[in-house]
Q: What sequence folds into this?
């Protein structure tokens, strides 16, 4: 089975990557889960004594979500930006998010459309050269290569 994380372990990993802010990270991870941005394995409300478990893909999504959160984007904007990212990746690269970042792309970047921009309509994972060559206007480019060894 792939590596799984509890909410606490996921937050600790994000802190180790320099993306979290210690005590706030666990609260943010839980908030992203409640908002439907991070999925758990099984039920979100696990009951007394049981912990939420997150799959390996959740670490990658949490990295992306925290970067957007650090930019000061409200949760509604984050939801719009990352909606459909998994489906777009599967359709374009024939793999899931983790596979695209860790194996398919040499230097993965996430290109996200900013409302009112032209060209890029859907979030997509691309090579760094494509991210800056596309000619899209008003896009946000997140470099994911620094995190690929940790995912």
A:
């Amino acid at each position: 089975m792939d590596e799984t994380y509890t909410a606490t372990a996921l937050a600790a990993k994000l802190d180790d990557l320099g993306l979290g802010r210690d005590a706030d990270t666990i609260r943010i991870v839980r908030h992203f889960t409640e908002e439907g941005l991070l999925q758990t394995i099984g039920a979100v409300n696990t009951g007394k004594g049981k912990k939420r478990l997150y799959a390996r893909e959740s670490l990658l999504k949490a990295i992306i979500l925290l970067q957007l959160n650090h930019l000061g984007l409200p949760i509604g904007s984050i939801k719009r930006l990352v909606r459909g990212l998994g489906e777009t990746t599967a359709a374009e690269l024939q793999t899931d998010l983790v596979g695209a970042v860790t194996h398919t792309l040499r230097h993965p970047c996430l290109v996200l459309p900013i409302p009112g921009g032209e060209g890029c309509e859907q979030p997509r994972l691309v090579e760094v050269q494509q991210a800056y060559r596309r000619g899209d206007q008003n896009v946000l480019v997140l470099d994911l290569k620094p995190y690929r060894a940790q995912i």
Notes: The mean pLDDT is 85. The CA atoms of residues 11 and 26 lie 5 Å apart. The radius of gyration is 15 Å.
